[in-house]
Amino acid sequence: MTIASTAMNSRPTPQKNVQRAFDRAAQRYYDHCYALNRESLQQQSAGLLLQQLYRQHQPMAGGVKQLLDLGCGMGVHWPKLKALSEYYTGVDLSAQMISQARLRYPGEHSCTRWIVGDAQAMPLQSGFADRVFSNLALQWCADRQAVANELYRVSKPGGVVHFSTLVAGSLTPLEHLVELGLLPVLNNYPAAAKWQQHLLQAGFTQVQWQQVEVATFHNSGTDLLRSMKNIGASQRQKHSPNRAAQGLRTPHWLQQVNAELERYRQPQGIPLNYQVALVSATKGSSKHLHL
Questions:
Q1: Burial bucket for residue 107 (CB in 10 Å: 0-12, 13-18, 19+)
Q2: Domain range holding 43?
Q3: Could you tell me which of 49, 64, 53, 54 has the C-alpha nearest to residue 158?
Q4: What count of other Cβ atoms lies within 10 Å of the Cβ of residue 68?
Q5: Over the stretch 189-213, which tens digit does the pLDDT of each residue have?
Q6: Is residue 267 predicted with pLDDT exceeding 50?
Q7: CATH number, domain containing residue 41
Q8: Considering its fold, how many domains does the chain have in total?
Q9: What is the pTM (predicted TM-score) of this model?
Q10: Residue 226 within a domain
Q11: Taking Cα atoms as reference points, which of 223, 144, 125, 250 lies closest to residue 190?
Q12: DSSP line for 196-215
């Protein structure tokens, strides 16, 4: 990962803002996303992506030699992914996340490595990965074509990339709060087909995707917003022009937010809906894959 800073341009880059957000969330990330919440967005998406990976590759004789877990966080998927591969590489933008991963698996050094790096410019050799796995990490990257190019570069010929990412239509019903001026502009996630275009342009010979809706439920509007902050997901990729929505969060503001979100309450709680794309891309292979 390369971070440039000059006196003439001291404003943090979008990736630096994302890195800082997830550094702050590192200590509580595991509890909120995995240990204490089996229905979190991360858990649900990871389950779907792992099913895709198992369905396509578990029968392979000899398994996978080199597997890259891109956006590995604290290494929560290491046990399942390492069981499928001889060598595991975990890469994450957040140095704090990587530190936590090393603490969680202190004795796993010979066949496992943890690296701080940016998906848009990975500090990895070309053509080393048989499989790439990435769960809900790539939506934080500002340059999607650079990500696609890097995925192609680090994959072996015949290698396959599997990733999940948020796409257009996510974060309902929060867009209603944006319209009312209660929240800043939300991240503008691309349509799933845009990822397909980027991957094909990068050189992948076959790209397939499916889109699923994943919902999390919350006791109140306050809990809903807190859940996003706890996992770093409240970090915006672009600066909001809505100055009022960026101002001081007062009790009156919070009362308004809770009242508006109560309109969407279901028996399970107040929903936060996400559109998740499950993507599979093959480098230089004519094998036909079915999702």
A1: exposed
A2: 14-169+188-214+275-282
A3: 64
A4: 27
A5: 999 999 999 999 999 999 999 999 9
A6: yes
A7: 3.40.50.150
A8: 1
A9: 0.86
A10: no
A11: 144
A12: HHHHHHHT-SEEEEEEEEEE
